[in-house]
């Protein structure tokens, strides 16, 4: 029987060595080493997070907040290093979702089996 | 370089063959094969889900709902097969959390590196 922790560490190594992770690492470091890009990226992150929090708490989002968020998104889209970073984040997210679908299959089969409904 | 999908499938197999998963599978099947236990378990699940949904939507939870939830939890705790199932779910959750911590380490290191803050 394969050891779960060994398999998890093998998978962690495979992720760390993947093209997707290394592309993301490079783009992230490119943005972080440029103070102007870093500041814009952090402002984008903060804005997204604030809106998400308000949504989760069921609070209304004002027109002004929507407008501010739209402005930051536009600035970010025009910044090639940040756009690249966001694309690379999306690629890694797809990979992580794939992995997650694979490893939760036993549970999904157990709980999703129509015989049990 | 290890292949990510191969590593993920190895991990899936390790989970499927684990003691934790097989204990959960046995307890789940024990509850599902007993109509009275199945019904109580599903009532518990539905109650938890309804309260969670209301919380996520920022809606108030009434005293009556709290009381209903408490009653179902008490019934469930007194049912040994369901208690066993819930313990086994918790054990598997601990395992899944462990795995998740291991495989998200590369990302955590990248985004959590204090040099980047
Ligand atoms: Ca690159
Ligand atoms: Ca068992």
From TrEMBL, chains A, B:
UniProt organism field: Oceanobacillus caeni
Gene3D superfamilies per the UniProt record, alphabetical: YheA/YmcA-like
Family: Belongs to the UPF0342 family.
InterPro entries: Com_YlbF, YheA/YmcA-like_dom_sf
Protein name: UPF0342 protein AFL42_00450
Superkingdom of this protein's organism: Bacteria
Signal peptide feature range: none
